[in-house]
Amino acid sequence: MNWKSQDWIEHSAFGLGRVNEDRGDRLDIEFVTSGAKTILKSTDLKPALSPSPDFKFPREKNKSRTPRFKVERPPRRPPLDFNHLVEGFLRFFDGGFESKDFEDRERKYKADAANELKDKLGKDAFEGLLRDGKYVEVCQIAKDILDTNLVFKIEKVKFSNGIKSVEKHNLFANALYDLLHGSGEMEARFTKFSSFLSEIGANNWPIATYFQFLASDGKCMFMKPSAMKRMADSLNISLNYKAQPNWLTYLKLQELANRVDLELRNRNLSPRSGIDVQGFILTSIQIEEGKYGKTAPPSNGN
Question: Which residue from 257, 250, 216, 217 is spatially nearest to 235, judged by alpha carbons?
Fold first, then answer.
C-alpha cells in the first residue's frame, strides 16, 4: 500500500501512529505510545483513524508559532582526510593491528569483555538463567560487562539506575536475551531493545549498541557518535545521524564500518574483526584531535 504524510496507521508491535515521511522502502512514523521510529514497509501496517479529531502529539502542542530567539549553531568542522587518519594511526601503532601496543591498549579489554559475555550470556547459559528466574544475576552480569571505557560513566549510571528496581529485572533480562538471541528480524529486536532503554531513561547510542557489538565480535558496530560522524565525513558517507537510536542510522553505521574495513585492507592493513575496525576509528580520530592517551586506561572490570 502507498502511504503518504499524515496518514494514520496501526502497527502490530508499536500501536497507533501517524506517517511523517515516506522514504521509499521505509516510513518515518510518530507513534502515540512508542515515539518516533523509522521502520520498513510491511504487512504489519494497517490503515487507522486518529485517536480524536483534535489529537496532537505533545511536541506539536508545545510548538511556539514565533521563536523567541535564534540559536546560532557552531561552525561545522571540515572533514578529515582518511589517508591522513591512517598515517596518524600508523605513527602511533607502528605495527598496525599487529602492534603489541594496539593489542594491549585497544583489542584485549574489548576481547575480554566479549568473551565474558559469550561465556555468561551465550544462548544456552542465558536460557538457563531465564529458566531459573535469575534475572538479578543477568542484570549484574550486564553491568559487569559494561564496565569498560567504551561507555561514559554517566551513561553507565543511568543504565544501572534504570534496571535497579525489581520490576525491571525480568523485563531487562528478556529484552537483552531477545536482542542477542531472538529469532525475529534484527530491526524489530534492536527497536524493541531501544524502546526498553527509553522506558528506563538510558536510550543512548553507546548502551543501545554495546552488547550486540561484543556478542558479534564487532560485526554489529558500536556507535560512539562523535568519532563515527567524523569518520563518515572523511569518507564522504552519509550516516543519517539522529541522536535517538534508530534502525536507519544503525544500518548506515554498519555500512560505514564495512567501508572502513575495505579501505584499511586496500592499504595493506588487516583488522582481525570489527572490534579492530572500531579501535581504528576511535583511536585515529582521537590521535588527530590530540586526545588519544589522555583518557582513563582501558578497563574490563577487573
Answer: 257
